[in-house]
From TrEMBL:
<keyword id="KW-1133">Transmembrane helix</keyword>
<comment type="pathway">
    <text>Protein modification; protein glycosylation.</text>
</comment>
<dbReference type="Pfam" id="PF00535">
    <property type="entry name" value="Glycos_transf_2"/>
</dbReference>
<dbReference type="GO" id="GO:0005789">
    <property type="term" value="C:endoplasmic reticulum membrane"/>
</dbReference>
<keyword id="KW-0328">Glycosyltransferase</keyword>
<keyword id="KW-0812">Transmembrane</keyword>
<dbReference type="InterPro" id="IPR001173">
    <property type="entry name" value="Glyco_trans_2-like"/>
</dbReference>
<keyword id="KW-0808">Transferase</keyword>
<keyword id="KW-0735">Signal-anchor</keyword>
<feature type="domain" description="Glycosyltransferase 2-like">
    <location>
        <begin position="1"/>
        <end position="77"/>
    </location>
</feature>
<dbReference type="InterPro" id="IPR029044">
    <property type="entry name" value="Nucleotide-diphossugar_trans"/>
</dbReference>
<protein>
    <recommendedName>
        <fullName>dolichyl-phosphate beta-glucosyltransferase</fullName>
        <ecNumber>2.4.1.117</ecNumber>
    </recommendedName>
</protein>
<dbReference type="GO" id="GO:0006487">
    <property type="term" value="P:protein N-linked glycosylation"/>
</dbReference>
<dbReference type="InterPro" id="IPR035518">
    <property type="entry name" value="DPG_synthase"/>
</dbReference>
<comment type="similarity">
    <text>Belongs to the glycosyltransferase 2 family.</text>
</comment>
<keyword id="KW-0256">Endoplasmic reticulum</keyword>
<keyword id="KW-0472">Membrane</keyword>
Length: 178
């Protein structure tokens, strides 16, 4: 495995702290420090384009998804590939929090719930129909899928996930949600 930490132009000590781990785990941890903020999508794009693996997983740094869930994404990827994972196969598996939807509505303000429902409706109507939770920051790509999607990604802001999934659908890639 390889861990790539992308510091998106932060002004705190993120890059230096990450570099300590990079020295401790030489060859496994890589730190990319961007001179200026490119927003979440831009940072993920840079990280994915620097990845060397046959599978590429991106995970938000907030820890909202437990890293052990990657095993479930890998199982789903095996199913998509028909048994053994073929790294040139154009597939991606998306983590999902859709099963927590009723729970999150209870803790979210009414106004924010309306905005969320409106966003999801617009995304479904105009862009992505294969995935309910487009914004989950835990996605697994084969090398083939990452190599086709990320060089042509247009959106670098917070809704870049929609662009990723839209491109996957337009390229007729196999997509699964776990």
């Amino acid at each position: 495995y390889q861990v790539i930490i992308v510091d998106d132009g932060s002004t705190d000590d993120t890059a230096n702290t990450a570099a300590v781990y990079g020295r401790r785990f030489e060859g496994l941890v890589h730190v990319l420090k961007l001179d200026e903020n490119r927003c979440k999508g831009g940072a993920v794009r840079v990280g994915v384009l620097h990845a060397r693996g046959r599978l590429v997983l991106f995970a938000d740094a907030d820890g909202a998804t437990k890293f052990e869930v990657r095993k479930d994404l890998e199982k789903s990827m095996k199913r998509l590939c028909g048994g053994d994972i073929e790294y040139t196969f154009p597939g991606l598996v998306v983590g999902s929090r859709a099963h927590l939807e009723s729970e999150s509505v209870a803790t979210r303000s009414f106004f924010r719930t309306i905005l969320m429902v409106g966003f999801h409706s617009l995304v479904w109507l105009f862009a992505v129909r294969t995935v309910k939770d487009t914004q989950c920051g835990f996605k697994l790509f084969t090398r083939g899928a990452a190599a086709r999607i990320f060089p042509v990604l247009h959106v670098e802001r917070w809704a870049f996930d929609v662009d990723v999934l839209y491109l996957a659908e337009m390229l007729k890639m196999r997509v699964d949600e776990v």
